[in-house]
Amino acid sequence: PIGKLLADIATQMRAWNNLYLSAQTAEDRTKARMLEKNLIAQTHKRRVEITEQLESGPLNNRVIAASALGFTREREALSPLLSALDDSSDEVVGNALLGLMLLDQRDTPLDPICRLMQSSRDDGVRRNAAQCLAALVYQGDRGDCVLPAARLGLADSEPAVRSQCCMLLATL
């Protein structure tokens, strides 16, 4: 069942994130890589169902599906993730930004991400947009909106947005 799958994926994503951010030993890094490979395999196999949940499922499912789709690393996940940036829930939007960052497609349209970083009322959405932009630009993606958005982001009230904008400007 899709609910059980999404609950399992959410648990694995939390564990992966904790290990990824705090791994201090080779063993921890190996565990994080193994969790990531498992997430990639699960989300790849059930991408169509996860996409359906992102597009029309209940809120809890949309929140999980938004970040889970990024683990597919498949181009087909790009369009649903971009569409999720217009979701009415800031949680879905924030996770869709993380999903786009994980998806790591070099030709991701950056305009909607710049818009969210500049104008979202939610600190988490702005923070995730800045992190997503920084990661995509570092990998070689470019857009006309990035430089002005990064400059404006230096004055953001959220410290994480400011630091990501510094990284963006350094990359550019």
Salient structural properties:
172 residues; mainly alpha; 74% helix
Task: Give a written overview of the molecule.
The protein is mostly helical. 74% of the residues lie in helices and 0% in strands. α1 packs antiparallel against α2. The protein is globular, with a radius of gyration of 16 Å. The protein starts with a helix and ends with a helix. The relative contact order is 0.09.
Counting DSSP E segments of at least 2 residues, the number of strands comes to 0
Rg from C-alpha positions? 16 Å
Oligomeric form? single chain
Task: Characterize the largest beta sheet: strand count, sense, and whether it forms a barrel.
Answer: none
State the helical fraction: over 70%
Shape: globular
Elements, N to C (H/E): HHHHHHHHHH
Please report which band the strand proportion falls in: under 5%, 5-15%, 15-25%, 25-35%, 35-45% or over 45%. under 5%
How does the helix and strand content classify structurally?
mainly alpha
Overall pLDDT, averaged? 96
Distance between the termini: 45 Å
Uncertain runs are none
Query: Please, how many helices?
Result: 10
Task: Give a quick summary of the entry.
The chain is mainly alpha-helical and 172 residues long. It has helices at residues 2-22, 26-45, 47-56, 59-68, 78-84, 90-103, 111-119, 123-138, 146-153, 159-171.
